[in-house]
Amino acid sequence: MTEIVALEALAARVAPGQSLAIPVDGSGVAMAATAALLETGIRDLKLICVPISGLQADLLIGAGSVASLETSAVSLGEAGGAPRFTAGVKSGAFAMRDSTCPAIFAGLLAAQKGVPFMPIAGIIGSDLLNVRPDWQVIDSPVGEARKVVVVPAISPDVALFHAPEADRAGNVRIGRHRELADLAYASKRTLVTVERIVDRNLLDSEDSAAGVLPSLYVDAIAVAERGAWPLALWDEYPADEAEIARYAAMARSEDGFRAYLSAFLTHRKQVA
Amino acid sequence: MSAERERREILIATIADLLEGIRHVAVGASSPIPAAGAMLLRARSELGGRPPVRISILGSQAHNFFTNGGIELFDCAAQGRVDAFFLGGGQIDGHGNINLVGTGDYPTGSVRWPGSFGSAYLYHLIPRVILFREEHSPRVFVPKVDFVSARAMTPEVPRRGGPHALLTNMALFDFDREAGGFALRSVHPPFTPADIRENTGFAYQEPEVVRETRRPDAATLALLRGRVFDELAETYPAFARTMKWAA
Lengths: 272, 247
Known about the structure:
The complex is a heterodimer. Chain A has 2 domains: 215 residues, 3-Layer(aba) Sandwich (Glutaconate Coenzyme A-transferase), CATH 3.40.1080.10; 36 residues, no CATH class. In chain A, the strands form 3 sheets. Chain A has an 8-stranded parallel β-sheet, sandwiched between helices. Chain A has a 3-stranded antiparallel β-sheet with strand order 6-8-7, covered by helices on one side. In chain A, 32% of the residues lie in helices and 24% in strands. The radius of gyration of chain A is 19 Å and the shape is globular. Chain A is α/β, with parallel strands linked by helices. Chain B is α/β, with parallel strands linked by helices. Chain B has one domain: Glutaconate Coenzyme A-transferase (3-Layer(aba) Sandwich), CATH 3.40.1080. Chain B has 7 helices and 13 strands. A 6-stranded mixed β-sheet of chain B has the order 3-8-10-11-12-13, sandwiched between helices. The termini of chain B are close together. The model of chain B has no long low-confidence stretch (mean pLDDT 95). Chains A and B meet through helix 4, helix 5 and helix 7 of A and helix 3 and helix 4 of B.
């Protein structure tokens, strides 16, 4: 059964050394839970961005919580490059596993289907194949005779995301953001924060059920109002561009980052 | 500001011309000029009674019909349902290879960029990839990229996708898949072919007479400054505001 817990209790379910999968900005990024996770002093995370990240990954990297990073990109979008990511790659602060967006989806799909790898089109000729020895080019064993890339299954220990609402049974409304379902299917555990818990059953009508991730895939839920702030949550609030720009400027230096992080954690505590 | 607006308007109109004839164009994140070009093409096709153009702008709700999550663009491209797309690069070389990762020795090299995004895959699968990079300088257009995020030509595997053209602040190049390199098509005023030679670090074909890139006509400008920038405001409010305001 899906448990409904406090935000701190939800964050405490992520243990050092685990692989943690997070979605792209705008899809439903659990920023309040990230603050709670940073409060626990989490270390050694194997972070997997599905398929890219921005502020969330940069905060975790800057705080020294990340041992390895698998992603297709980290960027603050209109606010520019992600400063702690850039500095961390150059100083070798974590093991970098460069990927390409559909390879991350293919890895998750393999885990979803319970198979060890997934073939994927394209990629041949890219230097990614040189820096990802776990990716292989094989002769297709069936069908048309040709080379094809295979990537290993990605089965994260924990998936963490934010959504507008869940019902009391733990069904979560994800709308058209099916990547959140892909994350949950592939992960051993899924933790979700929501703006609110609703009394109606989200599986009651065909209209509503189509955009719902059933509670079967959801281990725990916590309420976190404005839980994606300063990032956007679809149909709820836009990104706080000024705040993200402020972060981009401050995080250019280590000291500036520390000051931002401290204020960010204090702000989240006040909201809670 | 008006020079800056004109520069952008030439780029947007050129993109719409490069997309002529396609059925579906996708536009990645943080790409207001390509998005505006796609919207201009759609508006123009509609007014001209030509077949409708579908556009998928990542990050937009109003101009994006995908319902199957982040994977759908990639599946759609694999099925041959995406005709055109845009890629950039911190470095682009004369063979059309692009680098979105960084310079120097991987991974801790001298400059690190965000990462390869979907390029390694989409370059193989989308027939008309337009390379769009505003900065036209020898540090961007290099003889050989330091890291190949996505390779333009791979004779060892069948592919339908690859570079179609390269558009910069200064010029428009065609990509010749037979020759495996770029050919200068036109230069945006006020630049000259000599400026292009000076600022391009790779070898390319240059015709004897180099044309000027066509400026958008009055009808195109009216469409752009009206409907297109209004549509663009949903995804790129700041960019659309600047362009409307300048107009």
